Amino acid sequence: MDPVLLSPDEKRRYSRQMAIENIGTSGQERLKNSSVCIVGCGALGSMVAMQLAGAGVGRICISDFDTIDASNLQRQFFFKTSETGECKSEVLQDRMSDLNPECNVEAFKCLVNKGKAFDLFQDYDFVVDATDNPASKHMIESVCAELGKPCCIAGVSGFRGQVMTVIPGSPKFGDVFPDSEDDGFLPCSISGVIGPAAAVCASVQASEAIKYITGAGECLESKILAFDLLENRFSTLSV
Question: Which of 23, 131, 144, 181 is the most exposed place for a label (fewest CB within 10 A)?
């Protein structure tokens, strides 16, 4: 299928992004013709989804089996108090469509197990892990490896966060964090998390997807970006 070019309205919408030398018109058109699958619609996933919709990614899949709880609202900023009890993925789909009607958003209310992951991921160019438990991260990476798909994996706890991007053939999340319960990525319900730390983590993930799609800069391939907002420390570690 031939690439779809930008309309005059889209050129106006994305003018500030296209003004970036590393993106330009060609990069924006690549975003328009690209697709991203996001697993999880919590603090990380909702922020990544909104940023990629705003950036002009043409097709985005979001999936989450959970509903909105009052305890989510301290860090999941696109949900309302009046929406507690509603499906996260469906509410987020509406927010994304309101932000950018040109973005084709597919929402699934489901737990993404290995079988479902194979069905979802194969139709997308890039996968974002926005889950909050190590088992899901290992599963997502293993499916992406089998399908030859790039993915960005992140974890956040307290004031700290870590992000890495896995391109087929590069070092994997599982190489750095073996499949065990003490690999540093704890569920928010256990460890707690401050909203700004989740927002920083998600922003890096969204940036990784944009860079991979447009070819701008360097992704966190064979690297981990680690930060601690409590101590104002940011570091990039080679793996």
Answer: 181
Is beta strand 223-228 parallel, antiparallel or unpaired with respect to 160-166?
antiparallel
> 8-238, superfamily in CATH?
NAD(P)-binding Rossmann-like Domain (3.40.50.720)
Residue type, 104: N
DSSP structure class, residue 237: E
Q: What is the 3-state secondary structure (H, E, C) of 55-71?
A: HCCCEEEEECCCECCHH
CA distance 49 to 27: 19
Q: How far apart are CA 12 and CA 79, in angstroms?
A: 28
CA 68, distance to chain mean position in Å, is 19
pLDDT at 189 over 80: no
Q: Give the integer Cα–Cα distance in Å for 22 and 27.
A: 8
Block residue for tokens 């990069």: 27
Note the pLDDT tens digit of each residue in 85-141: 999 999 999 999 999 999 999 999 999 999 999 999 999 999 999 998 899 999 999
- Here the tokens at position 211 are 């860079």
Pairwise CA distance, residues 22 & 45, whole Å: 25
219 touches 158 (CB < 8 A): no
Domain definitions of the chain by residue range: 8-238
* Distance from C-alpha of 89 to C-alpha of 49, rounded to nearest angstrom: 10
Distance, CA of 191 to CA of 90 (rounded, Å):
27
Q: How many other C-beta atoms lie within 10 A of the C-beta of residue 180?
A: 8
Note if the pTM is more than 0.85. Answer: yes
194: tokens are 């401050």
